[in-house]
């Protein structure tokens, strides 16, 4: 059985949140550390996770002094949308990932029927009621990035952080990537390209990977509630974009999914049974994450 020693998960959701979560940030950090992982990034659709990550680090520091917990910010209505001021404050406090709009993206609403929902009751935010606006886009009517979106990208580049595309549309992703590469971005992650938002086709994934982006495939999207891709489909996608441009995250934290580390373990074991070499998981679960997070350390064996 494959182990998770040295793994990183760059996409985990935790309590407190308007959605029910499987545990708070300290719970999840402890579970992942106990499984042998090296670090995680806490994500929220609703706020910067600087404080969540800070308290989670404190909670596990004594038992797991080397375990890393990182923060980020997603540009939804809770932080004022595509808001350079909120981004700069988060980056100044050590945030490592900036996600373009997710649940409040216009493309998310188009894919799932409304902002703030994945199309089933358990995930619907009652605070949104029937209000769909504001829905956020990062491009203008001409298909170019808005000034605020450009400023956000420039801030991410200036701080050496990770720019993640969130739930925006394919045209928005292409415009974002084009501008980001033009201003020197080195750490661009295409967020779960297999999910309905953005639901990229494989040739587009390959094009983006060749341009220097990382495809972030998420374990929960192979599980019943968010099922978006089969194990065989994921295997083919990894081979097409290449492991060197792939990261595997859990996107976990929901009560109907396994704990994040277990979701990853299920998926890597399934891929391994399908023929993906154990050494490949070092690339897609350790080395690529270390490059994105600007870390360096020797990775332990997986078997």
Name the shape in a single word. Answer: globular
Order of helices and strands: EHEHEEHEHHEHEHEHEHH
Would you identify the CATH H-level superfamily?
Answer: Metal-dependent hydrolases
CATH class: Alpha Beta
Estimate the mean pLDDT confidence: 94
As a percent range, the share of strand residues is 5-15%
**Major β-sheet, in short?**
6 strands, parallel
Helix content: 25-40%
Class by SSE composition: alpha/beta
Radius of gyration: 18 Å
Give the N-terminus to C-terminus distance in angstroms. Answer: 7 Å
Provide the spatial order of strands within the biggest beta sheet.
Answer: 4-5-6-7-8-9
- Any guess at the CATH architecture? Alpha-Beta Barrel
Q: What count of domains describes the coordinates?
A: 1
Number of helices: 10
Number of strands: 9
Low-confidence stretches: 297-303
In CATH, the topology is named: TIM Barrel
Question: What's the short version?
Answer:
The protein is an alpha/beta fold and 303 residues long. It has helices spanning 25-34, 50-60, 84-92, 106-112, 147-159, 170-182, 202-211, 231-241, 260-273, 278-293, and strands at residues 8-13, 39-43, 68-70, 72-74, 97-99, 162-164, 188-191, 214-218, 246-249. 38% of the residues lie in helices and 12% in strands.
């Amino acid at each position: 059985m494959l182990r998770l020693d040295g793994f990183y998960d760059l996409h985990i959701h935790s309590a407190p949140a308007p959605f029910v979560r499987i545990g708070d940030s300290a719970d999840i950090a402890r579970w992942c550390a106990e499984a042998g992982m090296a670090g995680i990034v806490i994500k929220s659709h609703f706020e910067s996770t600087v404080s969540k990550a800070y308290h989670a680090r404190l909670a596990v520091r004594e038992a797991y002094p080397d375990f890393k917990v990182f923060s980020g910010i997603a540009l939804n209505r809770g932080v004022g949308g595509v808001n350079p001021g909120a981004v700069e404050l988060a980056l100044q406090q050590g945030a490592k990932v900036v996600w373009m709009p997710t649940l409040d993206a216009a493309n998310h609403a188009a894919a799932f029927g409304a902002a703030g929902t994945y199309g089933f009751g358990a995930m619907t935010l009652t605070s949104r009621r029937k209000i769909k606006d504001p829905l956020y886009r990062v491009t203008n009517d001409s298909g170019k990035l808005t000034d605020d979106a450009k400023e956000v990208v420039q801030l991410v580049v200036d701080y050496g952080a990770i720019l993640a595309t969130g739930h925006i549309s394919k045209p928005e992703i292409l415009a974002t990537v084009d501008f980001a590469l033009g201003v020197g971005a080195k750490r661009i992650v295409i967020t779960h390209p297999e999910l309905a938002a953005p639901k990229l086709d494989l040739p587009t994934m390959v094009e983006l990977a060749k341009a220097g982006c990382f495809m972030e495939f998420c374990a929960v999207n192979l599980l019943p509630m968010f099922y978006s891709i089969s194990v065989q489909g994921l295997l083919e996608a990894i081979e097409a974009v290449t492991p060197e441009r792939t990261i595997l995250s859990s996107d976990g934290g929901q009560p109907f999914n396994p704990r994040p580390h277990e979701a990853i373990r299920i998926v890597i074991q399934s891929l391994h049974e399908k023929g993906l070499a154990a050494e490949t998981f070092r690339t897609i679960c350790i080395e690529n994450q270390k490059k994105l997070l600007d870390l360096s350390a020797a990775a332990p064996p997986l078997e």
